[in-house]
Structures are given as structure tokens and as C-alpha cells.
Design a protein that fits this description.
Blueprint: E1 3-8, H1 10-16, H2 25-30, H3 50-55, E2 58-65, H4 82-101, E3 105-107, H5 111-122, E4 132-138, H6 150-155, E5 158-162, H7 186-197, E6 200-202, H8 208-217, E7 222-223, H9 241-249, E8 254-256, H10 288-302, E9 308-310, H11 335-342, H12 347-365
Parallel strand pairs: 1-2, 2-4, 3-4, 4-5, 5-6, 6-7, 8-9
Length: 368
Amino acid sequence: MLIIDGDYPMAFGAMDLNRDLALPIEEVRRAKPDRFASASCPDSETMASLPEMRLAKIAVALVKVVGRLHRPKNPLWGYRSAEAAHAAAQAHLAYYRILAERGQARILRTARELSKHLQTWSQTEDCRQLPVGLILGMEGADPILSPDQIHEWWEQGLRVVSLSHYGISTYCHGTGTGVSGGLLPPAKALLEEMHSSGMILDLTHASDASAYQALEMFGGPVLASHQNCRALVPGERQFPDPLLRAIIQREGVVGVSMDSWMLYKPGLDWGSPIPPRSTVFPREAISLEDYADHVDYLCQLAGNSRHAAIGGDTDGQGGSGGAPSGVETVRDYQKVAAVLERRGYSSDDIANVMYRNWQRFFETWLPA
């Protein structure tokens, strides 16, 4: 079955983690560590590369550009200047363009391009030579130097923007800041420019207050690319039912994240330093059944299977060590279908979750 991954920060893996993602996954994992290698994100736990995505039948991914600003008390590293954050995100865009120029990927800017691309994939039995489809998104809006610059990003192919990542961004409070801090003054103008350009708003990583306020201000399409359910796992990184319902009522889609912290039932204090998972729970404690719980919860909340989808946060959540047990590479995303089938989901419902919901959403909201 085809898959559309609603969140893959691919350029982060290629550039920030220095991985050659055009190689087979075994070669990526065997790469000799360089002096800049991240101990928390070892190459040996890489989950995705372009050849592995083709074997996984991941026809399309919402890939991200990232350029986070550093501010006091922000929980993750960031750039010291807005100019540097902007330049870093532009470099991520350049990476995707090069993949497209070399035939490794195809940047999907319009609904027509997406439909044609998926038709090719669905009609091809051996997908190992096909380009992977990329829809371009931004994780945290710090690289947007002023609201009127949104149109420049649109012309460069960007189609989805979230307002914050970790900490306080230029535009709102995000993960690690609690739930009550909301939008900042520049957000209103940014949301207006996003709506006028046709940009899609990703509510992922926004604080509760920021998300509610953005929904009031923004009249365009909304999604949550990788966001789980607080009713099942406590903590600010997951959304409460009223926010999930609001996204559903706006005909949005919620991608369920493979991050095991977001599936760990006791929850996590996202405002404090995040400890190594292995010091809190064994990897075997989190399974694809826990993942399917969030998919099922969203379907029950909506009353149908049209709003829950795959939102892997692939390799952004720490690689295979940060995924449920049984998920070593993105090929194992196919196992979600079997779990849902055992729970009594029909083939149509399973196809909705695996790819059709994202397909329907983007064919509706990308420019014609």
C-alpha cells in the first residue's frame, strides 16, 4: 500500500546530521562518524533514505526546512540571528531543489502535480526508480524575516508553515513553553499574508493558546503534521480534544507521530531537560499498538477515518531508537496497516490513514 508521510525533516538529516540520503539505508547507517556526529542521533539508527522510502512505498512526504532562533530558556539549539536562521532554511530548500534536478525527488507545488505523481506510483509495481514526491513545509517560522516575505517563500515552492518549533519563536509560544503563552504581535500579519498567498497552517508544536488564537485569526486550511492525543498521553506536546476537534471541523488532518515520547503513557514534562529515553523506559515498552491507539482515538473523535494519518516525524524524533519497537526503518510503517486490520478497520479506512487522507487534503488545498 502507498504511504504519505506527513512529517519528514529530511534536510535536517542531510545537512545538520551530514547524511547522504541518496544512499541505501545500510550504507547510511554504516557511515564512519565524523567529528561533528551527534551522539543523540547516531547514523546507525537512521530510519529513512530515498532508496528506503521507495522500498517502503512512501510516494510522498511533507518535508521540512528548519532555521530556529536561539532565545533564553529555549530548550533546543538555535541561531543567534534571524539572518542566519533565514539562510539555513534557504539552504534546506536548495537541498530539495538539487534532489529534484537530479531526478531523485519531485517537488509537488500543485494539486495537479500531486495527483499525477500518485497515479504514477499507484500504477508502478517496482518503485525503486521513481522520484519521491516532496511537499515543502517549514517547521517554525523564524526564517520568515517579515510577514510580507511569505510570498517569496511561496514562489520558491513552500506550501506549509508552522509558527513555532521548540521555545518561543518570532511569532508564538511553542513546545517547552507551557500551554498558556499565545501568539506574539507579528503573528497576525503573518497569518493574513499566509491566507492571501494560499499557504497552509501547520499547528504542530504550537502551545494551546497559540493554536486557539491562530484558528480564530486564520481562515485558510489547517493541519497538524505530527501531533498526538493528550487524552492518551499527558503533556503539552500532545493536543487536547477541543483542539483536535477544531482541526477536524476545519476538514484538517492530524498526522500521528512515531516519537516514542509522545506514545509513553505516563507522559513527559516538555518544559524540563528531556532525559535519554533508555533511562526512563525500555524501547520494548512502546509498540505499534500504542501508535494505533492514537490513530483510533482520532477516528473515534471524528466519527470516521478521514482525519487521522501517518505523521512520522521521521528521524526528527531520534531515529529508530526513538520509534516504537518493531520500527527500524520507514519500511516498517507498513505494519500500521496490519495493526489496524486486526482492530477491525476496513481496507478503505486503512487506506485513508496510510495515504488517502493526506492525498485528499493536499489535492483540495494545494493550488490547482
